[in-house]
Specification:
alpha/beta; binds iron/sulfur cluster
């Protein structure tokens, strides 16, 4: 019900006091971050403080929203129920009244609080904003004139929250504006600035200390350099920490407590379990720290999919809460976590299905993955095919590049809806001996491509940098194929093209024999159950007979300590054809010399296991011939579950009874 007459009450005063600006190619204006978007200003080349105040008062759309708000039609004014002010208003009756008090004698409002987000114009490429390079972003879309209102606004009493992009990019002239405020003196307003601190040199630090800056928030989410550098791509942990410390030391040397220098830390899945370590690290050095929760809609969609609170188990969220409680006891008010604790408690309730409300904010302005194939990047690579071997149904990878292929189709009792390795010139019927190599043979003989690659139903290349370290066997264990998994490791054609571009060969990270407790590749082979030294020797002899120029590479491999496993690679056409001709000439010769009669099922696969070793021999020789080859190593994932995901549905349309077990 709209409020009536003098008894009108309001959840907040923002429509009378606050202007929230998101500068991109256009300038988006609203009253607060929760408020649904209100006004787009297309041309903002010459907008200063007075022009912004005119829009605040006279723009038709702005006035319309304010009018609805004044009438108590908050939903119509674009105020969602999950806004904190609205929730407090509804639950506890917390309210503001008399908005007229903010008007001057002519009925005009002047915004005294401003938020300015300087868009995607940033000098680094954090995964928060752009999880991959494959996003639709114009990094220079903001017009620098939007920063011109800062000096008159702050000097006359306005309070500004300034966020990036990066406010210290030279294009905004922010350091000069701070100096101007310092020279003017007696500013009635203040500034809170969010920065990635990469550009905080002595001049910027001094300018902030001289100007009316109340708080500097520095984005750092972990005390672990490796994770920081992964999350904040293009930044460097040591450099940023040094800059942050310089600001702190300069402030302390002046005997000041302002500005507050606060580390702004987002709680993510990847930092959640060492949150206490992070909090202690920064607070021990004299910084303050504030924590906030990453919700699904806060940043770039892929990143949120895997790092937001939605991706955490209830146990992980509980662990974060325990760490937070311990740290609050230890550090008191220097740990600013007022909203986080309540949010965590709500998330736990939500995950236990005891709460249905979902708090999401923002999200509309973050970069989105480009649809379709990027023709430029594809043209730079050509026709790439990566064959993914399957011998049974399951969750299938398929795209223009990723081609599922049924290996051993000639021997199989099932029919899979995909390519088969038993057409054309093929060795499908030898799949019990050659395993996934029947796909390689088929591609070699039957497919014309610029790049040929191979992955398996449960082992994939991570085409994107992932922070996890491989386990024994050189693989990163993952759960199953779903959208989050594909996004995480870059199983999208554009990312694969981007990865192939400029490389001749993609290989797994080589695996050291020492992880198996053996001192050489030869010893490692025969130490494995079901593999025998005699076949290893035989293969080496055959190479020496058929391809004597490889004898050095054979010897180096025998005593060497690293090998490429899994018969996984991507190669340029000419290399792939050369390798395949070489490999199959050896394997076919060996096949005729081995008596498979009494071999177990595993022993039958000796040739495929040997092929893994042969790839290393071939590459050793190739690199000597062509030292300029561009080779890239990628991590390999291993899936725990390859079954098709099924939707769990209630047994009956009605009358279902939930039972907790
Ligand atoms: S969304 Fe909330 S904070 Fe924003 S104007 Fe509406 S009630 Fe106020
Ligand atoms: S998160 Fe901040 S610092 Fe990082 S790229 Fe985005 S705007 Fe720049």
């Amino acid at each position: 019900m709209p409020n009536q007459g003098s008894s009108r009450k309001y959840p907040c005063e923002n429509p009378y006091t606050t202007l929230y600006m998101i500068a991109r190619d256009k300038l988006y204006l609203r009253f607060c971050p929760c408020h649904s978007s209100m006004v787009e200003v297309t041309d903002y080349d010459n907008i200063g403080f007075d022009e912004l105040n005119d829009i605040f008062n006279n723009n038709e759309a702005v006035c319309n929203v304010r009018r609805k708000f004044a009438e108590g039609d908050f939903l119509g004014a674009g105020c969602p129920d999950n806004c904190n002010f609205m929730a407090a208003f509804k639950v506890s009756g917390h309210f503001f009244d008399c908005p007229e008090k903010y008007a001057d004698s002519t009925g005009r409002y002047t915004f005294s609080r401003a938020y300015l987000s300087l868009g995607p114009d940033c000098n680094i490429r954090c995964r928060y904003c752009m999880d991959t390079d494959d996003f639709d972003v114009d990094f220079g879309s903001c017009k620098e004139q939007i920063a011109d209102f800062i000096v008159p606004f702050v000097h006359n009493g306005g309070h500004l929250d300034l966020t990036g992009g990066e406010p210290f990019l030279p294009k905004w002239g922010f350091v000069e504006k701070l100096k101007e405020l310092a020279v003017l003196g007696n500013s009635k307003g203040s500034i809170v600035v969010f920065t990635n601190a990469t550009l905080l040199d002595d001049e910027a630090c001094d300018a902030m200390l001289d100007a009316p800056v109340d708080m500097v928030l520095i984005s750092m989410d972990t005390s672990r350099p490796e994770l920081f550098n992964y999350l904040r791509r293009g930044s460097d942990f040591e450099h940023v920490l040094r800059n942050a410390k310089t600001l702190l030391e300069k402030r302390n040397a002046r005997g000041k407590t302002r500005p507050i220098i606060r580390i702004a830390c987002s709680v993510l899945k990847s930092n959640a379990l060492h949150l206490e370590e992070t909090i202690d690290f920064y607070l021990e050095q004299g910084f303050d720290i504030s924590l906030n929760m990453l919700f699904k809609a806060n940043f770039s969609p892929d990143f949120c999919e895997r790092e937001s609170v939605d991706a955490m188990s209830v146990e992980q969220v509980q662990e974060v809460l325990c760490q937070l409680i311990r740290c609050e006891e230890k550090w008191g008010e220097r740990l600013y976590s007022a909203t986080l604790k309540g949010q965590l408690e709500n998330v736990i309730l939500q995950k236990n299905n005891l709460l249905t409300a979902i708090l999401t904010q923002g999200g509309d302005y973050y970069a989105k993955r480009k649809p379709g194939i990027n023709p430029e990047i594809k043209a730079a690579v050509g026709n790439a095919k990566i064959f993914v071997s399957y011998h049974k149904d399951g969750e299938i990878l398929e795209s223009e590049i990723m081609q599922p292929i049924h290996v051993g189709a000639a021997l199989s009792g099932v029919t899979l809806e995909m390519l088969r390795d038993d057409t054309g010139d093929n060795i499908s019927a030898k799949n019990d001996r050659f395993c996934e190599l029947t796909a390689q043979y088929w591609a070699w003989k039957n497919v014309d491509a610029d790049y040929y690659g191979f992955m398996h139903y449960r082992r994939h290349f991570a085409f994107r940098d992932i922070p996890e370290q491989p386990e024994l066997g050189g693989v990163v264990i993952m759960q199953r194929i779903d959208d989050a998994y594909k996004n995480y490791i870059g199983l999208h054609d554009n990312e694969i093209y981007a990865c192939l571009k400029d490389y001749d060969i993609i290989l797994p990270t080589p695996i050291g024999t020492s992880v198996w407790g053996t001192l050489s590749n030869e010893a490692q082979f025969s130490s494995l159950e079901n593999l025998h030294a005699v076949e290893f020797d035989l293969v080496c002899q055959v190479i020496n007979q058929l391809h004597p120029e490889y004898s050095d590479a054979v010897e180096e491999f025998r005593s060497g300590k690293y090998a490429y496993w899994y018969n996984m690679f991507v190669m340029r056409r000419e290399i792939f054809h050369d390798y395949s001709a070489w490999l199959f000439s050896i394997l076919e010769a060996v096949e005729h010399k081995v008596d498979f009669t009494y071999f177990s099922e595993q022993e039958m696969r000796t040739l495929a296991f040997m092929a893994e070793r042969l790839l290393s021999v071939y590459l050793n020789h190739l690199q000597k011939r062509k030292p300029d080859l561009a080779i890239k190593h990628l991590k390999i994932t291993l899936l725990k579950n390859t079954e098709k995901a099924t939707d769990v549905l209630p047994a009956f349309e009605s009358g279902n009874v939930p039972i907790a077990v």
